[in-house]
Amino acid sequence: MKKLIIGLLLIIVGLSACKTRRVEHENIYQLIERILPGKSSQFVLEDLKDMKGEIFELSGNNGKIVIKATNDMAFAKAFGSYLKKYCNTSVSWYLDDPVGVPDELPMVETPVIQECRFEKRFFLNYCTFGYTMLSWQWDDWERFIDWMALNGINMPLAITGQEAVWMEVWKDFGMTEEEIRAYFTGPAHLPWHRMGNLDGFLGPLPQSYIDHQFELQKKILERERSLGMTPVLPAFAGHVPKAINEKYPDAKITSLGSYGVGDQYQAYFLDPMDSLFVKIQQKFLTVQTKVFGTDHFYGADPFNEMDPPETTPEYLASVSKTIYDGMSSIDPDAKWVQMGWTFYYMKLWKEDPARLEAMIKAVPENKMIILDYFAEKEEVWRNTQAWNGAPFIWCYLGNFGGNTEMAAPIIKVAKRLSEAENDPDHGKFNGIGSTLEGFNVNRFIFEWLFDYAWDKNVTNLQEWIRQYTKSKTKNDDPVAYDAYKRMIELVYNDQVSDVGTGSLMQARPFLTGVKGYQRPNKYNYQELTEILGVMLSANKKSLQSIEYQKDLVVVTKQVLDNLIIPIRKKINEAYINNDSVELKKQIEIFAGILDDADRLLATQSEFLLGKWINDARSFGNDSVSKAYYEKNARVLITTWGNEGNGIIDYASRDLSGLISSYYKVRWQKFFDILQQSLKENKPLLMDSINKNMASFEWDWTNQRTKFTIKPQGNSLEIVKEIYAKYKPLYNLCNY
C-alpha cells in the first residue's frame, strides 16, 4: 500500500512538472500543434540558460524531440529546422497547402546546435499588403505568422488597420468621417496611399472595412509578439489630406502627384517645418500606441518615388530631424525604419550624396535603420559609405507586383551575402531581410535567405539542393536531384526579378519587341524544356508528392510562357509575308498555349483568379458591397489605375481565369484585327488598337463573371499531356 501511494505521488509530481513545462512554453507548443495537430506532446522544450544571443539545440531523448533554446524565436526556428531536415517538409506560407510529415516523427540522433548571426530579420513590403494580402482573413494571417516564426523572422512590417488610427487623428484636426473616408483609397490601393503616392482612388473606403482591419491588426500584433517578434508599425511621414488646408489655410502643403491615375487623386505633403507636422506625428503615435501598443520600431518614408519640395541637404536634414523628433517626443526609445528603395530608384539621391548623408546624420546615432531594399540588384551600402554609419539590413526583394515568372538568383544572392558579411567595410550591417512585393512562386529562396542567418553552410548550394529535392520528393531520387541542380544553374543563377518581370502572354498585344512591364528573363529556354522532361522521369514516389507536383506545374507554366515568344515571332513573319494560312495556323497554336496554361493553373489554389476575387467579395455583406470589393481586386492586377493608366499590367500574373477571360481575349481581338489587316491590305493602327484595348480592359474590371474557387484537374496528368503535346515545338525555344 505504501509503495502504491508513493507511486501515485510520483505520477502526480511528474504530471505537475509536465504541466509546468507546457505552461512555460505554451505559445511554442501551440505553434507546434497548429502545424502538426496531435503531435505537440512528442516535443520537449527546455530553456538554454546562461547563454547569450539566439541559439537553439535539437536532440532526442526517450523517443521525444528535445528543443533547447534561448528565446521564443529560437524555439520556433528550431522547430522549422527540424521539419526541414528530419521530416523533409517545408511549411508553406499558404493556409491551403497541407503539411506532410511521416506518421512516426523521425528522431534526432546527433544533437544539432545553431546560433543566429544577425540581430534583425526583416520581412514584407508595403506593397505586399496589396499584391498578396489584399483580402486575407485571420486564418490566412495565422498560417503566415507561423511561417515567419518557423523561418526565424523577428521584424515583420505591420501596417494593417492604421486607417482606424488615422480616423481619430484627422477628426481631431477638424475633418469629418466622410471627408476622411474619401481621402482614403479603396482597399486595393491602400499600400500606395499609405506611402503617399495617391489619395481617394476607388474610395471612399467603407467604414466596415476600416473596423474589420482594426480588429485584424490587434490579432496580428498579439500573435507576432507572442512568438517573440518586434513588429514595425507606421509613423507619420508628412502625407496629409488636401482638405486639411481648409481647416489650416496657412499650412505649407505641396502636391506629390498621383502615380498617373489622375489629378483628382493627387497626394499632398506637409512641410516638416510647419508647426502642424509635429502635432500630427504626436497625435498619431499617441493614438496608435494606445490601441496597438509598440515595439519602438516605426516605418516612415517621406519621399517614396516622389521628388521632395526642396532638395538641399539642409532642407532634407530638417525633414529627418523633425520626423524623428516627433517620434521620440512620444516614444523616447523610438527607432525609425526607413526603406532604402527611393535612394536606389531616384536619381536625385545619387546626383548629390550629401542629400542622403544629411538625412541620415540628422537623426541620432543608431536611431535610424535603413533597409537596403533591392540588394540583389544594387547594394546601396557599397556606394554610401555603408549608409553613412547607420545600421542597415541587407534585403532581397525578389518579386514585383506578384509577377509569377521563375526568377530567384540564389547563386548570386549567396555570393553577395557572404561577401557583404565578410567585408570589413560593411559598417553596421546587422540584419537581413526580404522586401518582396508579392508571393506566389520562388518561395524557396526566401526560406533559404533566413536559413542563412542561422547557418552559413547553406551557401554550399550542392548540399542545399540535395536537401531541397528531398523536401519536394519525400525520398532520395537522383533523377529529381539532377533536374533541380540543372534548374538552379540555368534559371536561378543570376536571373533578377526586376521591375516588371512578366510573361509575353500577359502583355497588351503587339507584334515585336518587349514593352510595358512584361520583360521575360533570358536564358536557354530549350534547356528548361529538357529539365521538365527529366523531372517527369523521376521515380513514382516523387511524382506522387504534392510538393513535387506543384513544382511541375510551375515549370510547365514557364515552358508555355517561354514558348509563345517564338510563336509570336512566327505570327509576325506570316503577317509580313502575307501568308494568311500560316498566320491562322500560328494564331491557333498561340491560343492553344493560353488555353493549356489556363487549364494547368486551375489545378493549384494559389493560381486561381476565382479565389482572388472570392476572397475580396467576402468583405461585402450585399451585392453592391461585394461588387465594390471585386472591382478593387480586378483593377489591381490588370489596369492598376483607371482606363488607359500607364501602370497597366504591372501586377500581371499567370492565373487560371485571368488568362482565359482577359489575356487571351485581348490577344484574340488583336489577332482578328491582324487577319483583317492582311485581308484588306491595310496597315495596323496601333494607337487605335491600344485605345480599344484600354476600353476592354476597363470594362473587364466591371464584369462580374464567376470563376472556379477550388482547384480542378489532375496536375500530374495535365503536365504530362502538355509536355508531350508541345514537344515537337521545343526546338523553337532556342532563346
UniProtKB/TrEMBL annotation:
Residues 121-455 form the Alpha-N-acetylglucosaminidase tim-barrel domain. Keywords: Hydrolase. InterPro entries: Hex-like_dom2, NAGLU, NAGLU_C, NAGLU_N, NAGLU_tim-barrel. One of its GO terms (biological process) is carbohydrate metabolic process. It holds the Pfam family NAGLU_N. Residues 464-725 form the Alpha-N-acetylglucosaminidase C-terminal domain. It comes from the Bacteria. The keyword Hydrolase applies. GO terms for molecular function: hydrolase activity. Residues 27-106 form the Alpha-N-acetylglucosaminidase N-terminal domain. This is Alpha-N-acetylglucosaminidase.
